[in-house]
């Protein structure tokens, strides 16, 4: 049977991030994608103009509907804007026999807040302990732990701070570092360390990068890959998607989720 991956995240009406990016990634990587919608956003290439959270009961019902009938081989979480939602989703994934990739979304690409300050403690104490892999970017590391990463040398300290909250593995995404000509990420479980490097690409159209990476990792885990194998393959996929990112609207365009599939010509 085709591997099945469930994303629990918000909708991006512009199609570059969130549920839309997750499902595109899953299609491109050969798994069956399913979704639990947590919020609706009015969003485009310029930013987030509005966000409306769904009731916890609706999120629970979507999750149970999918998992109890279809089943999942991996779960990915994205935008969970309130403490109530974070706690409910953490409980759901803890009770599911499948690896969970937690993308602790705090702000959008444009700097718009997507996580209430009151929800931070729930992320630390409920959601991160349920994660097989947590994938914070540098801003999210600071938001969650207070650790500021200014150079590659700080990545190990950041990873240790996140691991204190209980995820099995953490991937510290160093794409926001400005002192290197490479995009450097650190994957570790506190014992083994894997440094992943890719060229820093001169392309501003990177909307959806974090959602895409977390979803790609979930796809690899659903196929039975180890965490290091899944993360390495996901990094390669995202690097290609960033290279092919394209202009859309007047602001920051999305990465190209279908870059490896080719484009039909007419």
Automatic annotation (TrEMBL):
GO terms for biological process: thiamine biosynthetic process; thiamine diphosphate biosynthetic process. It catalyses: 4-amino-2-methyl-5-(phosphooxymethyl)pyrimidine + ATP = 4-amino-2-methyl-5-(diphosphooxymethyl)pyrimidine + ADP; 4-amino-5-hydroxymethyl-2-methylpyrimidine + ATP = 4-amino-2-methyl-5-(phosphooxymethyl)pyrimidine + ADP + H(+). Pfam families: Phos_pyr_kin. It comes from the Bacteria. One of its GO terms (molecular function) is hydroxymethylpyrimidine kinase activity. Keywords: ATP-binding, Kinase, Nucleotide-binding, Thiamine biosynthesis, Transferase. Catalyzes the phosphorylation of hydroxymethylpyrimidine phosphate (HMP-P) to HMP-PP, and of HMP to HMP-P. This is Bifunctional hydroxymethylpyrimidine kinase/phosphomethylpyrimidine kinase. It comes from Streptomyces dangxiongensis.
